[in-house]
Amino acid sequence: MYLALQIILVITSLLMGLFILLHKGKGGGLSSLFGGGMQSNLSGSTVVEKNLDRITVITAILWVACIILLGLFQAFDWAA
């Protein structure tokens, strides 16, 4: 179980990084520096953005749950 949680933690960490980078930039930050400001008018529907938000939140919840469970495993020495 401990190894499975570690694997899930690595996978959710990579997915969260990917999903966060896929989000559309809201301001004039780094996203507009690389042409994101020009594409914001041409971007697709908001349904895709809403689904991406939901997937990101679910992935973040799984990530936090894995961290808490791994902490409990180490605190109570259940990893053996």
TrEMBL record:
Q: Which organism is it from?
A: Corynebacterium sphenisci DSM 44792
Against Pfam families, the record matches this protein to: SecG (PF03840)
Annotated membrane-spanning segments are 6-22, 55-76
Specify the protein name.
Protein-export membrane protein SecG
- Function text: Involved in protein export. Participates in an early event of protein translocation.
* UniProt entry keywords in alphabetical sequence: Cell membrane, Membrane, Protein transport, Translocation, Transmembrane, Transmembrane helix, Transport
**Gene Ontology terms describing biological process:** intracellular protein transmembrane transport; protein secretion; protein transport by the Sec complex
Q: Does the keyword Transcription apply?
A: no
Record carries keyword Iron-sulfur: no
Give the bilayer topology.
Answer: Multi-pass membrane protein
**Family designation:** Belongs to the SecG family.
Q: Which GO terms describe its cellular component?
A: plasma membrane
Question: Where does the source fall among the domains of life?
Answer: Bacteria
Which Gene Ontology MF annotations are present? protein-transporting ATPase activity
| Localization per Swiss-Prot or TrEMBL | Cell membrane
